[in-house]
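Session log. Operator J.P. requested a structure for one protein chain; no other inputs attached. Running the standard single-chain path with token output.
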Amino acid sequence: MRPPPHILVVNGTKVRRPVFVLGAPHSGVTLLARALKRSPGFHMTMGRPGVASVVRTFARRPSIMRSKGGGSVRVLRDALADAWQLVPGACGECPAACREAGAVTGGGPCASPGAVSRFGDAEPDLLYSAPVLIQAFPDARLIQLIRDGRDATADMLADRASMEWAKPGMISDETEFPSPFLGVNSGAHLPKWAGMDPAGKCALRWRSAVRLSAALRKEMPRDQLLTVRYEDLAASPEQTVAAVSDFLETRVSTVALYGAPPPRVGAWRTRLKPDEVTLIEKIAREELTRLGYIATPKGSLRH
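Structure written below.
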């Protein structure tokens, strides 16, 4: 007999069908989360310290997620429950991007407890915790963002905070392999990784994230996972958000998407050096081709 589902109550509201936005770094997760955060009835968090600490631990040590007893499920669920608490000063722990997305100028909270009916999170590294996330919230709705790896890499390279993970000193004895977080399959490959150009490290991480997204797409029912291309979100925000609204069965606002202009599609052509482009396409050619970002060579079959 299956145990009864865990009922999580936050701010006096039962957490039902929470929404989680996943993707590789700089794939548009923050942009879509911004729209959700400003939609009626939503309380969307991004980068809360407690959640970030848990998911980054899981990302670096995936074996923790496979431990028996459900400990990892409880830890992640508790971290999210704490992040979703709407109390005075709650927004003081949120990063600037989350406060800006919610138009918060003080300590918050960014929403009224009585008005919230849907909860969600868009922690940048949440993708690596997807197996635990699904166990913690079996009725969750997942939205995964896919973006051209060359554009994502260009934005990663320009984001100093985003590149902290790429420093060799960030690798510890507790780092496990294969490491989806780094995109490295074996500890024996670390010396080569450490000496690799930053663009190559970003390409490895993007490639790994895309592979995780593809595996998730195969495992999840269609009514629980929606894949959104960043390029569609940037070019046709109203049409893309309408699809998101249909998927979530609730109205999602497009107003937040018309603030600061999103990073331009195809900007990698002027932002990346030729040798960086060559390296990225060498590392991630299979994924870039499969997703249609690189044309399939004539005479070959596309899978």
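Operator note: The chain has one domain: 9-290.
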